[in-house]
Amino acid sequence: MTKIGAVINKNTGTLPPQQKTDRIEEIKEHLLARISADHLAIVSGDQIRQEVERLQKRGIEMLVVGGGDGTVSTAANILSNTGILLVVLPLGTKNNFCRDLGIPLEPVEAIRLMDSMQMKEVDLGEVNGIKFINNVSLGVYPKMVAEREEITKKRGWRKWQAQIVAALIALRKMPKMKLVLEDEVYTAKRFTPLVFVGNNEYQGGFESDFHRPAINEGKLWLCMARSLGILTLLRMIYVLSVRGIQEMENLEMRSVTKLIVRSHHRKLKVAIDGEIHKLSMPLRFRSLEKALRVAVP
């Protein structure tokens, strides 16, 4: 019999408190029909890593992880190249990783993937030893996330409310970075407000099916904005929302397998799967081919 564990982030998502509690109870009921109680942990976000490591040491062969992309990313960092099968329950706001893999967005339906045992090996990206399931960004986006977290903490606003104000602040204080980027083909100097590195290539627009057709091609997708003013950047955001990223005129895009980003700064803030980290320079990216086993429909 397969040895199964489960770790659920009880605080993730944007549901009202009572609905969130009811959803967790429903998930718990379905999971306990399949796993033992001592292998189920329902915890806050800061305890996810500890619980995943605990269950890994118990010799599990399958791990159910419930949460948003940040929670899944934490688990992926531990499960990478272990052979443990990951079953993802989408409980976050966007659930981009699940969407790109076609995993059901209804948690109870996702639990049923445990029964089918269909598996897919997918890539991970890595920057300075930290693995990512979706993407890493530098510049204006990490600035916006940091502002959003500060507003949420100080004023108690909901995430989407804080996001609007944070975006306006980040654009007003839009950072410009002097960077040197080296990949397997050439070296380039850039002055840019935004660098985006995806785990495989993205297509579509932010409001029109922004997705990855595949997460197993062994590629990183580098996307850089040219040095822009605020009005040009706002026009870019509009085009990106309506027409898609391939239609952008002020973005430089290409696929690579390795990437080094250098700066005169000793450290830079980066957003890794939506979570802010301050990393020492240079930033060294690479693609980890088929590093994670995931249950899929």
Write a concise synopsis of the structure shown:
The chain is an alpha+beta fold and 297 residues long. It has helices at 17-32, 48-57, 69-79, 96-101, 107-111, 113-116, 140-155, 159-172, 230-242; strands spanning 4-9, 40-43, 62-67, 85-90, 119-127, 130-132, 135-139, 177-183, 187-192, 194-199, 203-205, 208-211, 220-225, 251-256, 258-263, 267-272, 275-280, 283-295.
List keywords for this structure.
kinase activity, Tumour Suppressor Smad4, six-stranded antiparallel sheet, kinase, 9 helices, single chain, NAD/diacylglycerol_kinase_sf, alpha+beta, Rossmann fold, ten-stranded mixed sheet, 297 residues, ATP-NAD_kinase_N, 36% strand
What report would you give on this structure?
With 297 residues, the chain is α+β, with helices and mostly antiparallel strands. The chain folds into two domains: 4-117, 3-Layer(aba) Sandwich (Rossmann fold), CATH 3.40.50.10330; 132-289, Tumour Suppressor Smad4 (Sandwich). The protein is 32% helix and 36% strand. The protein has nine helices and 18 strands. The strands form three sheets. Strands 1, 2, 3, 4, 5, 6, 8, 9, 15 and 18 form a ten-stranded mixed sheet that branches. The chain has a six-stranded antiparallel sheet with strand order 14-13-10-7-16-17, with helices on one face. Strand 3 (62-67), helix 3 (69-79) and strand 4 (85-90) form a beta-alpha-beta unit. Helix 2 (48-57) runs parallel beside helix 3 (69-79) and helix 7 (140-155) packs across helix 8 (159-172). The longest helix has 16 residues, at 17-32. It is globular. Mean pLDDT is 85; it is low at 239-244.
